[in-house]
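Hi team,

As requested, here is the filled-out complex form for the adenosine-3',5'-cyclic-monophosphate run. I kept the field names the same as last time so the parser does not choke. Let me know if anything looks off before we queue the next batch.

— J.
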Amino acid sequence: MEQTLSIIKPDAVKKNVIGEIVKRFESNGLKIKAMKMIKMSQKDAEGFYYVHRERPFYKSLAEFMSSGPVVVIVLEGKDAIKKNRDLMGATDPKKADKGTIRADFADNIEQNAVHGSDSVESAKFEIPFFFSSMEMVN
Ligand code: CMP
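And here is what came back:
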């Protein structure tokens, strides 16, 4: 069993598609281990995306991620990291396969509906960034 962090980003929350996205996780064998809606500050979002601090889109990305509520979710399952990334589709929705979350709900490469951990190491940083062990109740 593996765990991964998913974020339903502010653009998808505004579009009222939280339920549709969560349904895709559940119907593809990923279990909701923990979930909550939060609003990050610019500083919170910069901390979360610290690995991207040298990228030209870093400030804008943190501004977008703190522009409204997001839903943070810990997903658990066999090969959860890859399974979640397959369900999400490519970072750029224009390049995402048909039927993926980003192809269906994302607007552009920045406002791309969802985030998912890209490795076991990232998941180990990202999950405790948002959740205490007390919140991992399922
Ligand atoms: P995410 O999977 O959350 O990981 C990093 C995020 O940076 C990515 O999704 C996008 O929201 C954003 N991002 C990646 N590449 C670009 C880019 N070229 N321009 C703007 N934003 C980007």
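Two things worth flagging: The pocket of adenosine-3',5'-cyclic-monophosphate is lined by residues 52, 57, 61, 91, 109-110, 112, 115 (CB under 6 Å). The radius of gyration is 14 Å.

Thanks,
J.
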